[in-house]
Sequence to fold (558 residues):
Amino acid sequence: MFADAGLEKGVLNSGAVLMRSASGSSKEKGVYTMTVRWGKCSNFKNCKDAQRQLHIPIPTGAPFICPECKQALLDEDTDQANNDKAADATPEIAPIIAPTSAGRKPVAAGVVVALILLVGIACFFMWGKLHKANAGLKNMPKPILRLAGSNTIGDTLGPALAEAFLKQRGATDVRILPGASPQEKIVQALLPGDSKASVITIAAHGSATAFTSLAGNGCEIGMASRRIKADEAAKLATLGDMNSAANEHILGLDGIAVIVNPSNSTDRLSKEQIMKIFTGEMIDWSQLGSSHGAIKIYARDDNSGTYDTFKTLVLAGKPLAPGAQRFEDSKALSDAVAADPNGIGFIGLPYIQSAKPVAVSEKGTQALLPTRLTVSTEDYLLSRRLYLYTPATPSDTYTRQFIEFALSKQGQDVVEASGFVAQNVAQVAQTVSGDAPDEYKQLTQDANRLSLDFRFQSGQTALDNKAKVDLDRVVSLIADLKVAGDKVMLFGFSDSTGSPAANQALSLSRAKVVASQFAERGMTLAIVRGFGARMPVASNDSDDGQAKNRRVEIWIKK
Fold:
């Protein structure tokens, strides 16, 4: 996938580009440039990196010391620069027979011989230095994979997945190194059978950069905390249908938590109230029945998939309030809200930290906090999916292997450990709402709900990309639990568009679609019901709300 010639030119693309002998971090059209200095440790007595003569990347501006033993490094870039200068200074070998003319004597033969010897010695010396430098370049860490995009994914989850992926392949000396900015990471390791280290680079500058980097050949895998837009997909048409299961991979689930200071007495807000706060229509906490004080708004920046999702789900096309403080980093935003008694912000589930989340409701629905259950079933109004995007037919093997690992149980355990909601299926006890249909109450009385719902492609009865993978996860769980098919129950629901009779039929039809998929996998289910537009989890006044209500729940009798 990468040639040594590329390394000799100093290029180590990272979604991003990792450069030799450069400074700062730059971007062009959304493709970020990661810059480092290369060094070697000389502490051979006490440092394994020195003993193995590792080439160590250090971000420009960071202390130029060995990460292992903390001793100062030898600067390989300086050596290479000196070699380059010396090469440029080498005199060009030109005809050395001095011209003659009237009144000018030929150059003495002894001077000619001396010049030839001097040039020969200089060339021999430079050949040795350049040969040594090129040999060093060939031992530089080789890039095997580049991820670019979402800061929500790339800050912690991306490096953790890369580390676990390399270890699963038997790599040793696996370490996560800082990049040129807090949004960049380098995961380095020694793979079995290799004599030099390999690196996976991660540039997490926002979901929008996932697609510009894919378009500019700046990464193999794009990370996004929102779904790709139609215009972005059109620009990547040469990579395949970006909305298909071959290109779009659901990495995990997240809930956008609306957070306030822990001392704030506000416990729940409607989507309409949240919209009015973040668009500047509500400016004081007293308007919400809380303590007095001007509301201070904290928000992610424009490149953020978190902001893009929030804008779509909450702001309804209206601009963010002027004066909102913007952040590229999720943790910094959460810390700012937690420190401000009048602050309010929105953030991904793992970054709530010391702040307080509020329950969110919508017309006709119960207020729900962002919990693992409400997010995993996508019942929480501000739940969202995390995506990895790749070409349909990657040109390298590492891309396919990384995606397979990320979606496996082991990869999903990493998702869970990073604070997001994994897609490993579990049984969950759930209290049924008092206004649920009587048959629903009766059937679920002695049963557990599985931690997912099946949903469908927009305007179709075909399952969406996540549901297709979830089917196999559910079948594996049921097989492990040794549960008979007659104990598995499917309950379909619809939005409120159409007559009650039509909605009842449509909800049952969707449940039967899922039942047929289980039948193809060797499992016949005894109970398949449709409950129409009853028990909505979102308002039917919007397309997004209607899509959430078109679902199939799965329960297992005890």
Notes: The first helix runs from residue 4 to 8. The CA atoms of residues 136 and 353 lie 44 Å apart. Confidence is low (pLDDT under 50) at residues 1-26, 90-105, 133-137. The first strand starts at residue 11 and ends at 13.
